[in-house]
Amino acid sequence: MSLFADRELVWMIGGILVFLSIASLIAWVLKGRARSESAQATVANLVARIRAWWAMVFVFGIAIATGGYGSLVMFAIVSFLAMREFMTLLPTRRADHRAMVWTFFLFLPAQYLFVAIGWYGMFALLIPVYAYLLLPSVQVLAGDTEDFLARTSRLQWVLMICVFCVSHAPALQMLDIPGYEGQGAKLLLFLVVVTQISDVLQYTVGKLFGKRKAVPTVSPNKTVEGYLGGGGLAVLIGTALWWATPFALWQAALLSLVIVLAGIAGGLVMSAVKRDRQVKDFGALIPGHGGVLDRIDSLCFSAPLFFHLTRFFFT
Amino acid sequence: MLLERLVSACLRGLCRLFTGAHPRWLCDPRSLAPRVYFANHCSHLDTVVVWTTLPEALRERTRPVAARDYWGHGTVRRFIAERVFDALLIDRKTAEGAEQIEQHRQQTLDAMTAVLDSERSLILYPEGTRGSGEAVQPFRAGLYHLARTRPAIPLVPVYLGNLARILPKGAALPVPMQGQVVFGPELHIATGEDKQRFLERCRQAVLELAGERT
Fold this sequence. Notes:
The complex is a heterodimer of chains A (315) and B (214).
Chain A: H1 7-33, H2 37-65, H3 67-89, H4 97-116, H5 120-141, H6 148-171, H7 184-209, H8 224-240, H9 249-276, H10 292-314
Helix pairs in contact in A: 1-2, 1-7, 2-3, 3-4, 3-6, 4-5, 4-6, 5-6, 6-10, 7-8, 7-9, 7-10, 8-9, 9-10
Chain B: H1 2-19, E1 23-25, E2 36-39, H2 45-53, H3 56-60, E3 62-67, H4 68-71, H5 75-84, E4 88-90, H6 98-117, E5 121-124, H7 142-149, E6 155-161, H8 163-166, E7 180-183, H9 195-208
Parallel strand pairs in B: 1-7, 2-5, 2-6, 3-4, 3-5
Antiparallel strand pairs in B: 6-7
């Protein structure tokens, strides 16, 4: 499917570009106005974030434009980078090495292979069944029982989050929705736009109007106002995009709400993981944002939920 | 030449992919004067990582010191060591008898000073063998003798973190993780500095870099 053959897809991408241009313009105005040191730091971070957004939209745009396989490869790379960041933080032992090699060089490629060939059964079971049982078996053969349960659980969790969950985003394109054949790219774009715009708006509304801290022990920057205002606006935007989806207006609204709520949960859970491991960010690959996992934490939670709801009710 | 460059680019690409290698410099990364980089040794990746993170101009004039018993064996390994890294292969096997040991030491030292005299830098691992990655072993005397022979040449401590987890001893395949590479500030041997004190000072200089963010 070509990018320009689908009018709706062109409109969506055009909308993103307009949105980003406006953001860049606002940042440019703010840059001239910032006086205090903390304001300047905030604006500098904002500028870095927006610049990174342009790069991310560019990469994602190319992925979408090259059809299903392009986005598949892109998400496989995202999984790889996210897992690389996550593994770095794990307290692993020498005996885990072989199992970790398997997660990277067997389960990650296999999972995306099953998405590519559209084998839903194996896509859904590879990690929850095969990896779930094989990884501890490989670990136990190394003979080290110290901290065994925690070690094997961590590895499972990393694989679930970084590969299983993330792979549900490109897998949207393998769904056969009656009357929506070959248009899966828009479904993927819908998920990514609602998830990411929710993050952006929560951040923006929180910075502008945030007063009451929502979960101070986990993520001190998150506020009730940010969640309600930003999340609410994201649901509205998602609803307003119903024309590009196979959903009716009210269905788009409900699914957007699910995406936003799952995204909030994902962000919080991954924040807790960072606290636990005593790091601020998962990495430094994306300037202004942190690591890849910092950017996709909400997507890790929203993608599988959105995939299964869509699959259950619409195919 | 083409093959060497191709292999070199591939190795560097793979190294970035598997170690996320991104160096932090506390000394001047543009200085072309010969230096001795000395690092903690915990993985076969060490040389590839230091070599990958050096800027191209420096990489071209830097020769890693590598053990002949590992890097001199096998066609591929040997090709990489000699033609891609342009490594200075040295014999690690300790010779029998005091006289031969002294002779072997002198030969190694001469080979290394010859590299420095030709305006090129060295990468070496004063621990001798790979450690577990958790602790840095006491340094061997080679660094001291080299520093005393060429006291004007700056010594640069290099800390390599996490590489033992990426490719531990005995493992065939690496687990991709974020590695840590820190090039510390240059140091010199003081006139008349005691051997043990100097070696311990160098070891501490490497250890101090462990906390640096990359």
